Amino acid sequence: MNGKTDQRSEPRLRVNLRQLEVFVATARGGSTRAAADRIARSQSAASTALADLEASLGAALFDRVGRRLVLNENGRAMLPRAASLLDQASELQHLFSGEHATPLRVAASLTIGEVLLPELVAKWKLAHPASPVQLIIGNTSEVIEAVVGFDVDVGFIEGPQTHPDLIVRPWLSDQMVIVAAPGHPLAQVRGSVGVRQLREAPWALREHGSGTREAADRWLTEHLGELKVEFELGSPEAIKRLVAAGTALGCLSRHAVAQALAQGLLVELRTRLPPAVRRLAMVLHRDKRLGRGTENFVRHCAAVQGAAKAAR
Length: 312
Fold this sequence. Notes:
Number of helices: 11
Radius of gyration: 25 Å
Number of domains: 2
CATH architecture of the largest domain: 3-Layer(aba) Sandwich
Largest sheet: 9 strands, mixed
CATH topology of the largest domain: D-Maltodextrin-Binding Protein, domain 2
Number of strands: 11
Order of helices and strands: HHHEEHEHEHEEHEHEHEHEEH
Shape: elongated
Low-confidence stretches: none
Strand content: 15-25%
CATH class of the largest domain: Alpha Beta
Distance between the termini: 71 Å
């Protein structure tokens, strides 16, 4: 041995983090222009970095479909690994800052995101004051898309929808309830409201694609048949306000209407229908390594699940 390092035993890395950053941003945005906007670089720099990455790997990562770049088989295999490496690099960057400060990226369906998560996020933030929180709120389909596309690290959904790339973890129990304004004619019925009365009443329901709409359709259609759905709205809050005006009946999560019921703005109708219980769930990408902060948040939310079980 002459004391020199055997260069053959240490192959030179041909891929750098900047290239991976452009690759992931392109996968999420569908073009190098969108990628450049996401990561604050010029489009020419993003295009060059992506071309250099594909040249270094000796493989194309996207199919060019018109002006869009669509992940091919190679790109789909690489995306979860690239996203995880970028997350680890972000953790490494903050390792010596005295505090873990990587963002918490969460997506949640409207009922969960507007009613259940704000308090949980606020309590988690107290233990991680330097970590910014990014909470995306949409319907269940949009939440699943965000987790599958690595736009967020964990999602919370209401419906039974899933995806082969996701791990679904049951979380909290929920119940669907039928609500009306206190002055609605069916709110004046003594005893239980009949099936025919429910079938003939106008309804306000969530839009298709939401977990609440799926649960309402399964429950109500099975027992009432076709309904007079005269309003489709994109949020529980809008439905509550419309129903409170006396225009229609609503079917929402008990979590979503609990405060309005307590305040007397809405009333729960008694019916002969069997209870409609469903499970809320957390969804994670099966190929993505969670960062330390996200793991802590998942455990934080799981502890709420344990507390809810203990209280029953």
